[in-house]
Amino acid sequence: MSAPLKPLPAWADVALIPLINVAAAFVISGLVVLAIGENPLEAVKILVAGALGDLEGIGFTLYYATSFIFTGLAVAICFHAGLFNIGVEGQAYVAGLGAALAALYLGFLPGYSLVFVAIIAGALFGAAFAAIPGYLQAKRDAHIVITTIMFNYVASALMGYLLVDVLRAPGQMNAETPGFSKYGIVPQFHVLLKPLGIIWPDTPFNLSFLLALACAFGCWLLIWRTRLGYAIRAVGANPTAAIYGGISPARVTIVTTLLSGALAGGMAANVILGEEHRLILEYTAGFGFVGIAVALMGRAHPVGIVLAAILFGMLYQGGAELAFDKPKISRDMIVVIQGLVVLFAGALEHVFRRPVAALLARRTSQPPI
Prior knowledge:
The protein is mainly α. 72% of the residues lie in helices and 0% in strands. The chain has helices at residues 10-35, 40-52, 55-80, 88-105, 113-140, 144-166, 189-193, 208-225, 227-237, 239-244, 249-264, 266-276, 287-297, 302-325, 331-347, 353-365.
């Protein structure tokens, strides 16, 4: 019977294993592209050029990445508490309602204080919607996976009703609210940079990106530098031991889901306040579910989540260019690639762990020359 291998070093666990998993996903994706009669290397070249080849592509890539950072952080903070929040999609959707209501009905606020209040309102609505399944998990032992899945449908039905029958602008056929005032929107970078003489292409890339980075740094501080973060990690590691340490798993569950919903609300700042400037139907577009893949690939660490979000942003933007240049490679192929990334980063994340651990152990055990 072989001796157990030493644990992987932190750098290998956080960086090397995810890179190998992503590389494996792309190799399998390349075989799929080859099977439909296209050149995988040419497809990768088009995808990367479309995402990073010019300022316009970079702008769209970072715009998508901003939403993925928010949703990835929302999923990850629950991971640390041992919770699997699949309801980020619905929480972000309801957060858009909070941001829109503030932008539409608090226009009496002075100047750009309106947009700050709208961002906070979005976070509060997202937190409140997430608190319900959090409470049910903590106090009624209703599993959070089941309740958050159900609440995604509740959010969809609620928002459909409000946008069609309550908030829709008079005479408007589309299910959307009236547009926000200029003080109720998050400024886009091409508008901010123009007075400075810097020409940036007209893209939806906006200041929410900086907010997302600030939230990532804040999550790092919270999880690894505060008592609450220690309590969250303790409950995630062993709820029974946490109780003996004087930590309440129920309290941690409710607080963590509140924080998760608030982070999901950041997506409303990026899309509703930063691009659409009105609330539209199904604005989340599945980004809440992509946040699960981002959190898995980023190992629930803020730095990894930012990098994974940028990768998924590249897939979205580069995938659009790829579908345009290569009609045989549709947008569905990008969904396949995302699914493979989730497969290798989640369900099959341990496939390469043992070989890598054996290789590193062999290298470290070699005597010096």
